[in-house]
Design goal:
about 475 residues; alpha/beta; Rossmann fold; Glutamyl-tRNA Synthetase, domain 3; 4 domains; four-stranded parallel β-sheet; three-stranded antiparallel β-sheet; binds glutamic acid; Glu/Gln-tRNA-synth_Ib_cat-dom
Length: about 475
Amino acid sequence: MSVRVRFAPSPTGYLHIGGARTALYCYLIAKAQKGSFILRIEDTDLERSKREYELAMIDDLKWCGIDYDEGPDKGGEFGPYRQSERTQTYLDIAKDFVEKGFAYPCFLTTSELEELTAKAESEKKSPHAYHGKYRDLDPAEAKKRVEAGEAHIIRFKNPRKEWSFTDMVRGDVKFPVDMVGDFAIIRSNGMPVYNFCCVIDDHLMKMTHVIRAEEHLNNTVRQLMIYEALGAEPPRFVHCSLLVGEDRQKLSKRHGATSVKQYREQDYLPAALMNYLCLLGWSHPDETDIFDINQMDSIFDLNRFNKSPAFYDITKLKFFNEQYLRALSVEDLATGFEKAIPSEHAYHAKETSWKLDFAELFREKVQLFSDIVPQLGLIFDETIEQTEDVVDVNSWETTPTIRDYVKTRVSEIKASGSENITSEEFKEIMNHLKKELKIKGKPLFMGLRVVLTGKTHGPDLSKAIPLTPISTIEKRLS
Ligand code: GLU
């Protein structure tokens, strides 16, 4: 049987980082087993679902590099892939369930339901203990009341037994008899409920694996009941570990950016984000951390999931992004910087070859493309900020000597018509200071850095100085 795995988001918001991790796992499992990966949109909650979010999710998945074989915008043999377009199928099966005695109409009004829930709670019973009031109503009588137009929902007739299944992450999971009651499968407005639609679709779409977040574990018991009523074999379940923030609480907005959209806006590299997400609850057999998700086909192994909560750490994600930036071609690095630098900045007037040298110079100084912006001053600032460390270096005995000599050389070089100090000229300045003026070690390197750039740190000076306009250096020296 060929492997079929679906990612089934509800379009009620932007793609969450946890959703992207689930989608990635679904995709990798399908690819590793030469199967199909399917996108199904679960939009039965009509009030909260928006087409705008569906489109944004599709766009985010594309950006992540998670490509599906079948989906609402691609079609496929098992469509439609949007639940709101499958309502009739669910209603037909609900009708069939009622006819076969797997489900029944329930005429409890909202206030009656509230009363019964309160009664059960006051008697320390499960809240659903009395929800089955119409469970044994004569089916002919129930049918008559439905046909007369009486308001009702359809409840699943819980067979009231213990349930268990083997989760590929959690092992054997058992559910006690009274964990759930006779749960709704069709609402009073005639719309089917998630657990019902999900099973019908997974069954009709021939899914072999269901991979989803841990919070769906409790839905699984209801879903197992529906599989049984359908006479269908349940798929293999993988409930992924919870994503938590530093406080070990479920990842939420207060922990920082939680949607893929936000990481896109911050110009993270999708490959870095995917690599990092892949390791949140799964480990690579070679214990390597940096790998390309496109080369995981033969590696992604279902047995390497970890069930303990995964700590989502933005600092670590940035570290991954940094590694990926280091590996980019210089052209791509420069393009990334180009987009991050405000359009009015003098950087944009520079020639392409200058921009490539500039990108190379800062390659190992950034974790994100936008980290380049605060570093632009190294090349472009004409005035020197008198920070404590700059004042300190300026107070060293040797620094005025360095400044005097550099001033002389800069005037000479400028007078010769050059717009920059070349790296050879820079080396000559260094050598002169070292050999003739006997300044060495830290006083030389730090002194020269502060005199030329006005900063105590930065990338290789012999490469930074040739990129700095000589007129800028002259102003710094004045
Ligand atoms: N629509 C559900 C969600 O977005 C999917 C659950 C599942 O994968 O079964 O959480």
